[in-house]
């Protein structure tokens, strides 16, 4: 059950990061999505979504590895 919850917790930021990549790619091809009025704003929102989603997933994995003592000594809790 805990693994299923962890998977769901990681899927949501994964979808947000994927949406960010899609918006950045569409900006490069000149495709504007309706809720956003400018291409540069669409790229900026996509970049923010990508960084937030990837950061959450990275932080989740880092926290899990730190709990299991699988990180380098400089990253371990003091």
TrEMBL record:
Membrane spanning stretches: 36-62
Superkingdom of source: Bacteria
Keyword Transmembrane helix belongs to the record: yes
| Pfam families documented for this protein | DUF2627
Keyword terms: Membrane, Transmembrane, Transmembrane helix
The name under which this protein is listed is DUF2627 domain-containing protein
């Amino acid at each position: 059950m805990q693994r299923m919850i962890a998977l769901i917790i990681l899927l949501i930021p994964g979808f947000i990061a994927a949406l960010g990549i899609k918006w950045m790619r569409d900006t490069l091809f000149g495709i504007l999505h309706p809720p956003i009025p400018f291409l540069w704003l669409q790229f900026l929102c996509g970049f923010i979504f990508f960084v937030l989603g990837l950061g959450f997933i990275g932080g989740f994995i880092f926290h899990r590895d730190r709990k299991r003592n699988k990180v380098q000594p400089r990253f371990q809790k003091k």
